[in-house]
Amino acid sequence: MKEIQMVDLKSQYDKIKGEIDSSIQEVINSCQFINGSKVKAFSDNAEKYLDVKHFIPCANGTDALQIAMMALGLKPGDEVITADFTFIATVEVIALLGLKPVLVDVDKDTFLMDIESLKAAITPKTKAIVPVHLFGQCANMEEILAIAKDNDLFVIEDSAQAFGSDYTFSNGDVKKAGTMGHFGCTSFFPSKNLGCYGDGGALYTNDDELADMARMIVNHGMKKRYYHEVIGVNSRLDSVQAAVLDVKLNYIDEYNSRRRDAAEFYNRELSDIEFIQTPVKSEKSSHIYHQYTMLITGGHRDGLRDYLDTKNIPAMIYYPVPLHVQKAFDYNEPEAEAKFVNTNTISDLVLSLPMHTELTNEQLDYIVTEIKNYFKE
Predict the structure, then answer these.
(1) Main-chain dihedrals φ then ψ at residue 356, nearest 5 degrees
(2) Is residue 56 part of a domain?
(3) DSSP code at position 102
(4) What is the CATH number of the domain that holds 262?
C-alpha cells in the first residue's frame, strides 16, 4: 500500500502532469510572469465558475482579507466580529490594520459562527462581520446577511477552506461560498481543494466600485501606471501559479466529489463508535471537506492520534489553541472563558484524518480498521 499522507499533491499532479507542464511552459515561453494572459484567463474562468462579477487575484489568502478590509474603508478602532475557532490569518489582518477583533463562539456541532453569540457581540463600533466557512462548509449566511443588513454592517466571507461549496437560501437560491457578502476571500495554498504550487489567493465581489478599489489596492494603489490614487500594497498572483490553477479549476467539482466520497466512507465506518462524533453537515450548505474533522470524546483524542502515528497514519489537530487565548492577541475580557465554551471544548477534542482527492479504497480501509482496532483495545 502506498504511504498515507494528509494531502497527496504528488499523486494529484501525476494525473494531470501533461496539462500542468504545458500550461507552465506557456508562461515561460511568453515571459509574462506578472499579470500575464494566464492570470486573465484564470480570473475569467473563476468568475464564470463562481457566478460572480469580479474576481481579483492576489498573492495569498491573508492578503485577500486585508485588501478587502482596506477596500471597505475600515478605520483603526472599528470593531470586526469573527469566529474564535479558525486559523489565525482571519484575525491577524484585523489587528494589523489597527482594527479591533471581536471574537465569538462557534456552534458545537458544525464549528461555524454561532448566531446568538454574533448578535450579542454587536456594538455601535461594529463595522464588519467575517464569517469563516470552516473545514469546507458555509456558515449560516442567510442569518448573518440579515443581521448585517439590520445593523448596516459589511460582510467579508473567509472562504479559504470552502472553494466551490454551495449555500442554499430559504427561497431556493444557491450561491457559491464567498459570493454572498460584500467580499469573499480565498487562499490557493497548495493543500487547499483548489491549490497552486506556491502561494496564491483571491477576493471576489459583485460590487463594481469595491472591485475597482480592490484592484487598485493589490497593485500599489494604481489604476493607471505610476498614478497612485490610494495607498495600496504589492499583492499579485504570479502567472505560473495562475497557469496551475486554471488547469486545476477544470477538475474542482471532481476533486470536491472525491473528497465527499471519502468523507461518506469515513462516516459509514466510524459513526457507530461511541467516542467518535463524525463531522456534522450544515443543513443549508454542501461540504467539500477541506478537512475531515471529528470530535474524539472520553479522553481518547491524544491516545488515538499517537496510536495512528505508530501505524503510519497521519492525523492532525486543527486547531489546538483557541484564538482568544493566543499570546499574540492577549484577549483579556473578564468573562472570556464563559463566552467560548464551545470553542474551548472543541479545541480539546478535534482530530482530522487524511483527506484529499487521491485516497484509495485500500488506504481508507486501513485507516478505519486501525481506528476500530484502537477502540477494541
Answers:
(1) -165, 180
(2) yes
(3) E
(4) 3.90.1150.10
SS3 call for 186:
strand
Residues 281, 217 share a domain: no
Contacts (Cβ under 8 Å, ≥6 apart) of 165:
133, 136, 137, 138, 159, 176, 177, 256, 285, 286, 287, 288
Q: Give the pLDDT confidence of 335-361 residue by residue, as tens digits.
A: 777 899 999 999 999 999 999 999 999
CA distance 126 to 151: 9
Greatest Cα pair distance, the chain, in angstroms, is: 69
Express as a percent the part of the chain with pLDDT over 90: 96
* 207 and 272 fall within a common domain: no
pTM of the model: 0.97
Contacts of 42 (CB under 8 A, 6+ apart): 57, 237, 242, 243, 245, 246, 249
Q: Helix, strand, or coil here: 74?
A: coil
Average pLDDT over residues 60-81: 98
Domains: count for the chain = 2
- C-alpha 78/C-alpha 98 separation (Å) is 8
Paired with 155 in beta bridges are 129
Is residue 104 pLDDT above 80, yes or no? yes
The alpha helices in the chain, defined as continuous H runs, are 9-15, 17-30, 37-50, 61-71, 89-96, 115-121, 141-151, 208-218, 239-249, 252-270, 301-310, 336-339, 341-349, 361-376
3 state SS of 319 = coil
Determine contact, residues 153/124, Cβ cutoff 8 Å.
no
Q: What DSSP state is assigned to residue 146?
A: H
Q: Is residue 79 part of a domain?
A: yes
From 198, 219, 249, the end of a domain falls on: 249
> What is the Cα–Cα distance from 79 to 74, expressed in whole angstroms?
9
Contacts of 191 (CB under 8 A, 6+ apart): 6, 7, 9
Assess if residue 2 is contained within a domain: no
Domain that holds residue 203: 9-104+112-249
Q: Cell numbers of 256, please?
A: 470536491
Assess if residue 36 is contained within a domain: yes
